[in-house]
UniProtKB/TrEMBL annotation:
Gene: LOC109886681
Xref: PANTHER family: GH23275P (PTHR10210:SF53), RIBOSE-PHOSPHATE DIPHOSPHOKINASE FAMILY MEMBER (PTHR10210)
Keywords: Nucleotide biosynthesis
Top-level taxon of origin: Eukaryota
Entry's family note: Belongs to the ribose-phosphate pyrophosphokinase family.
Protein name, UniProt field: Phosphoribosyl pyrophosphate synthase-associated protein 2-like
GO biological process entries: 5-phosphoribose 1-diphosphate biosynthetic process; purine nucleotide biosynthetic process
Residue span, Ribose-phosphate pyrophosphokinase N-terminal domain: 2-107
Length: 332
């Protein structure tokens, strides 16, 4: 409700009157307590630890608005759940595609979100998707709240987040470091059935792919005596951030700051961060985390309601959204 109230306050409107509750058997029920006939409805849904309940609430609410003859239903979902499951792993499934189909079938006609885990996820939807960026607000925080940020180095805790780190480093005119290497060994495809059989019918045998060599984890870049800012889009169990901070401290980095857009902070993440070498954890309010802040005093919250409210206003008024992506390239 906090983020929804901030957006409504910036737009100068009141939140719609609805009632959402769970039956004793766990089913989700909604009651729209005012007319939405012929209106443009914007459903703001942040994600709590009970992810599946939040998704069902969004879908049931959207379907309720459609059956109540709303003209359009736009979902404002700052963090898209299941976005990390956007690739095939072993015999799993691309769950993010399923969630996208579910939202579209429920009646959403537009989606506003922030910093998708992979921007290609937009292709899972058959409705317009505006993938807003939190980087301007995080950059502003660095410039205003971190003294001597020109002596900082932006750190990517894995090669997959190097592009995000490079984008921030180029805008701040600072250098970049990448933690390279892979300690995990269980990410192989694992599909070995049916068992390999050598044919004798004259058909050529398929060549086997050479296995990858796992390089030891190391830091590529100079971090000694500098402020290290570890960046990523999501901070969940915080294990990766803490391991990166320990490695940076061993190499002489000064204050170590963790920065991410979405603060899931599940399980014991707040306690782990509190006891770690990280001095600050900078996140946005795309996900409510007030209870986690009580467990970890290092967490600093950056408000992004301004860009969400402006996106809603521009969509409602039929204005261009291009100014919200000013100086953001296709690779960002």
């Amino acid at each position: 409700m906090e983020l929804a109230n901030r957006i409504a306050e910036r737009l100068g409107v009141e939140l719609g009157k609805t009632e959402v509750y769970q039956d004793s058997n766990g089913e989700t029920r909604i009651q729209i307590q005012e007319s939405v006939r012929g209106k443009d409805v914007y459903i703001i849904q942040t994600i709590s630890p009970d992810v599946n309940r939040c998704l069902m609430e969004l879908c049931v609410m959207a379907y309720g608005c459609v059956t109540a003859c709303a003209r359009s239903v736009c979902g404002v979902l700052p963090y898209l759940p299941y976005s990390k499951q956007c690739k095939m792993r072993k015999r799993g499934s691309i769950v993010c595609k399923l969630i996208a189909s579910l939202m579209c079938r429920a009646g959403l006609t537009h989606l506003i979100t922030v910093d998708l885990h992979q921007k290609e996820i937009q292709g899972f939807f058959n409705i317009p998707v505006d993938n807003l960026r939190a980087s301007p607000f995080l950059l502003q925080y660095i410039q205003e709240e971190i003294p001597d940020y020109h002596n900082a180095v932006i750190v990517a805790k894995s090669p997959s987040s190097a592009k995000r780190a490079q984008s921030l480093a180029e805008r701040l005119r600072v250098s970049i470091a990448v933690i390279h290497g892979d300690a995990e060994t269980d990410l192989l495809d694992g599909r070995h059935s049916p068992p390999t059989v050598r044919t004798t019918g004259g058909l050529p045998e398929l060549p086997f792919c050479i296995p990858k060599e796992k390089h030891p984890i190391t830091v590529v870049g100079d971090v000694a005596g500098r402020i290290a800012i570890i960046v990523d889009d999501i901070i969940d169990d915080a294990v990766g951030f803490v391991a990166a901070a320990e490695m940076l401290r061993e190499r002489g980095a000064g204050p170590i700051i963790a920065m991410a857009t979405h603060a899931i902070l599940s399980a014991d993440a707040p306690r782990i961060l509190q006891e770690s070498a990280i001095s600050q954890v900078v996140v946005t309010n795309t996900i409510p985390h007030s209870s986690q802040k009580l467990q970890c005093c290092k967490i600093k919250t950056v408000d992004v309601s301004l860009i969400l409210s402006e996106a809603v206003r521009r969509i409602h008024c039929g204005e261009s959204m291009s100014c919200l992506f000013h100086n953001i390239g296709a690779d960002d």
